[in-house]
Amino acid sequence: MYEKIKRRIRAADYLTVAELFLKSNFLLDRSLTFEDIKPRLLGHWGTCHGINVVYANLDFFFKNRPELQFILGPGHGFPALQANLFLDGALEKVDAKASRNLSGIEYICKNFSAPGGFPSHSSPLTPGVVTEGGELGYALGTAYGVSLGHPEKTVAVLLGDGEMETGTALASLNLSKLISGPRNGRILPILHLNEYKISGPTVLGRKSERELNEFVRGFGFSPLTISGDNPERFQFILEKSETLEHPFLILKTEKGATGPTELDGKKIAGNYLAHQIPLPNAKSSEAELKLLEEWLKSYKFEELYSEGKGFNL
User: Fold this and answer.
1) CB-neighbour burial class of residue 24 (10 A; exposed 0-12, middle 13-18, buried 19+)
2) Domains in the chain, ordered, with CATH?
3) What pLDDT digit, counting tens, does each position of 172-192 carry?
4) By CB atoms within 10 Å of each CB, which of 2, 61, 96, 111 scores lowest?
5) In sequence order, what are the beta bridge partners of 154?
6) Which 3 state secondary structure label does DSSP give 160?
């Protein structure tokens, strides 16, 4: 059971990285060359593994339960969202070019952050997206709005720890005491605590576990912590959350987890340097190109997809 979730995360991680970097050689049929790399590298990696972990676990736990609605706060992690919508077949329903085969993989990767293609942030071009993904802070308030008058709904909302420093997000935490009861849906906030934002550490990332839990409790929520990306723990916490009136999940992962750990003597994964493009010179540096190839190969995508058999998830 848990292996299925891990495979889904690996597939989404691989596609996310391919979207950020590749314009060709999407299955690594040969060694990467500079010609395979996009001329301009634009996007955000640091939050993406966490998004993929959350999406895969929610998808598994709420399978065949149409009441779930997912809201993504850190919309700058769009390549992860697009990878998951592609794997779900949701993109193909609105864009036949996004078919779940090599042609579709080429389409979503080549056109990510490309002129006339897909933006680097979530946008209304994406199925289900109603705001531009760079506007951090509105996700939790939107989730409560979605729940109004819909008691059948469960609205899971992923929040970045940098996002939680915005006034809008902090004010929205009060909604747990203002909007609840049998006439409205259930809210499942998930804080992605990776401890860093674009240029430094986050405030919540520097709180002790006790301080963070008391902060959450002060707004009327019951904190539940998930350390790392172990699906067994995640599924256990999701099960436990169903017994609580106002659960609040805290997912702790490394910033840029599964990506490069060091470059030119500087720490990448687990640091703010993972926020955007961790290998900015992959188009011109042999060392960075090699790191990129090792990074992509670490997901063993050949076990998850083959052109003859399709996806094995």
Assistant:
1) middle
2) 2-311 (3.40.50.970)
3) 999 998 887 789 999 999 999
4) 96
5) 68, 186
6) strand
Distance CA 130, CA 71 (A): 10
37 strand-pairing partners:
22
Q: Hunting for tokens 């259930």 — which residue is that?
A: 186
Residue in 170, 181, 169, 177 with CA at minimum distance from that of residue 142: 169
d(CA 294, CA 268): 15
- Residue 223 burial (10 A CB sphere; 0-12, 13-18, 19+): middle
Contacts (Cβ under 8 Å, ≥6 apart) of 107: 97, 98, 99
Q: What is the DSSP string of 227-289?
A: ESS-HHHHHHHHHHHTT-SSEEEEEE--TTTTS--EETTEE-TTSGGGSS-S-TTTTT-HHHH
Torsion from C-alpha of 72, 205, 14, 303, nearest 10 degrees: -110
Nearest-angstrom CA–CA distance, 219 and 177: 8
Instruction: Confirm if 260 and 288 have CB atoms less than 8 A apart.
Output: no
Please give the model's pTM, rounded to 2 decimal places: 0.95
Question: For residues 73 and 82, what is the distance between their CA atoms, to the nearest angstrom?
Answer: 14
Gap between the Cα atoms of 151 and 67, Å rounded? 9
Main-chain dihedrals φ then ψ at residue 304, nearest 5 degrees: -105, -20
pLDDT of residue 130: 63
